Amino acid sequence: MSQLIECVPNFSEGNDMNIIKQITNEIESVDGVKLLNVDPGKATNRTVVTFVGEPQAVIDAAFLAIKKAGELIDMSKHKGEHPRMGATDVCPLIPIAGISMEETAEYAKKLGERVGKELGIAVYLYEAAQKNKERSNLSVIRAGEYEGFFKKIKLPEWKPDFGPTEHSIRSGSTVIGARDFLVAYNINLNTTSTRRANAIAFDVREAGRVKREGNPVTGKIVTDEKGNPVNIPGTLKSVKAIGWYIEEYGVAQISMNLTNINITPVHVAFDEVCKKATERGIRVTGSELVGLIPLKAMLDAGKYFLQKQNRSTGVSEKELIKIAVKSLGLDELSPFKPEERIIEYLLKDDSKARLIKMDLTAFADETASESPAPGGGSISAYIGALGISLGTMVANLSSHKPGWDERWKEFSDWAEKGQHFKNELLKMVDEDTNAFNKIMTAFGLPKATDEEKKARTAAIQEATKYATEVPFKVMQLCFDSMEVIKAMAETGNPNSVTDAGVGALCARSAVMGAFLNVKINASGLTDKALAEKLIAEGNVIEEKAKALETEILKIVNSKM
């Protein structure tokens, strides 16, 4: 796997789209970098940009963006709701694939050194890139903001990690580091009061609030035996939060950084803020995502809100995201477009999923054309996907059948299993055709020299092996999916028992159809031991599938 890191620089300009475009143009000028998202905020006067790529390309693009921002943004004239200290306020690197946090931190240091040396901008390292833990927290580094940094930078303990010991009047100073994936998330309130929003933020953020005697706002600060202020921690771990008023929307918000969504997911943060707001007589009206979010966070949120309603969570990915958006109110201030805000969707390569993107007529037309693919293997996978879809439908219908309310979780679990098999089989529809195309590509390789002939033969064998393994996987998936179909025939909504029967017919047919492809492709393998193994195991799966189909149809017929 190639190394992949994400970069999420925050630039102190959120109104002038011409300036923002010039900065993002610099990023896009670097080969090997993909710009994923540009999220400007008028009230914060700040733009969060997200891009990904291989490490060296990413730090090259980040350097150019920091340079351009320093040329175009005059911090002496900057005003905005968000804390800031520079034209490029903060520039984190996040490991995505094939790279450790330690390696990512080294790239952050390289970028920081280059910015300090070549651009003359004071640079502070933070999070994993900063060895000194007393100055690794972004909010601690940024305290005093742009206006206060002219004095702060002169203090011995705040000497920059790179660059001059001067806070630039025009471009300010910059923080560069490496951190885990962070979700920037704002929750909207039905109040205009920054003070009340801050009170809720202090209730929930991990750092909490300073303990005071008597009045929690004006009372004397309580200190420990060393004279340090005593803190009352908030209710949410791995959460940073402040309250502010957004003139653009005419409401106050809780602005949150969720630094570890495995510890505090988005939906947990939302519900906790709802609870604390209600205690203070305030209502949450919706929320706003800044930048991107992982797919899992949205799916987990959808499942969470369905579970609160005692509804089945075994629905499609699209439906789970829709539930999450509506439950969190992510579309209150502007439309929420999953294809633009979910990181996996932005990175997805749809070129290998051509068939399942087609409508039914186009898929049938493509199959009926003179092209040899899609063929029996892809059709078998699709039949299998339809079979388990019927079983999943029965599970979802059963989960909210009148009188069966106490059984919703039982059927929800079956539906989730069904969705898993359906999703995997849909992938196989295209994968079988891709495997066939690999064989055709291998046969088209040059064979003029002995070396070329040898390479061509090896490529053909490798492609043939893959083209045998794909339908074999389809066999396994379809047979395994019959467990769900059988359970639904036995215990599901009796009004839908024939749907389970049709599902069983599809699954068995898919197993047999895929096995035909296994056998024809295995005949071309020079590794006869592997071919014999796949055929032997395929025979066992086929016989079991036939027997299980008979068993399921017997159950179905007994209930008709």
What does this structure look like?
It is a single chain. With 560 residues, this protein is an alpha+beta fold. The chain has three domains: 4-178, Formiminotransferase, N-terminal subdomain (Formiminotransferase-cyclodeaminase, Chain B, domain 1, 2-Layer Sandwich), CATH 3.30.990; 183-347, Formiminotransferase, C-terminal subdomain (Alpha-Beta Plaits), CATH 3.30.70; 352-558, Formiminotetrahydrofolate cyclodeaminase monomer, up-and-down helical bundle (Four Helix Bundle (Hemerythrin (Met), subunit A)), CATH 1.20.120.680. It has helices at 17-28, 55-72, 101-119, 138-142, 145-152, 194-204, 266-279, 295-308, 317-328, 338-341, 343-347, 360-368, 376-399, 408-443, 450-491, 497-522, 528-558, and strands spanning 4-7, 10-11, 33-41, 46-53, 88-97, 123-127, 174-178, 183-189, 209-210, 231-232, 239-246, 251-258, 284-290. The strands form three sheets. Strands 1, 2, 3, 4, 5, 6 and 7 form a seven-stranded mixed sheet that branches. A four-stranded antiparallel sheet has the order 11-12-8-13. Strands 9-10 form a two-stranded antiparallel ribbon. A hairpin with a 4-residue loop joins β11 (239-246) and β12 (251-258). α2 runs parallel beside α3. It is globular. The two termini are 53 Å apart.
